[in-house]
Task: inverse folding
């Protein structure tokens, strides 16, 4: 029971790998293929993907309800809920990483990318840390 293309795109997305570099991320593509051949693994991964999608929907809902509760030093209502949802999203991304035996290459539920750096290698950022060039 192989994964559908949309599911594969979501796996890449939550693990932090760009779809445009998929030809150079052979270990991720191999893990997706092997897991997709096992219906039990596929079912578990689909549950994780569904949970991640649910967290994203909840985050969008909460962000739509944000409002200032204090003027001056701005304080926003619902920030604790957002932090908790992001933490839960990270937990599920970690589960997906463990299930596929592939390292996370980005923090999907974080606020930052890799500031100030550009990748000089076609391989994943996790493997190419030594090949990073700082932008000036």
Result:
């Amino acid at each position: 029971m192989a994964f559908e293309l949309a599911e594969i795109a979501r796996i890449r997305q939550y693990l932090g790998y760009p779809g445009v570099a998929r030809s150079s991320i052979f270990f991720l593509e191999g893990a997706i293929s092997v897991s997709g051949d096992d219906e039990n693994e596929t079912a578990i991964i689909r549950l994780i993907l569904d949970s991640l999608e649910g967290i994203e929907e909840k985050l969008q809902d909460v962000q739509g309800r944000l409002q200032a509760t204090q003027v001056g030093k701005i304080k926003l209502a619902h920030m604790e809920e957002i932090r908790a949802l992001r933490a839960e999203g990270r937990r599920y991304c970690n589960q997906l990483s463990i299930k596929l035996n592939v390292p996370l290459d980005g923090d999907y539920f974080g606020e930052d990318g890799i500031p100030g750096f550009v990748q000089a290698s076609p391989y994943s950022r996790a493997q190419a840390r030594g090949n990073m060039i700082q932008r000036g």
The two ends are 48 Å apart (CA to CA).
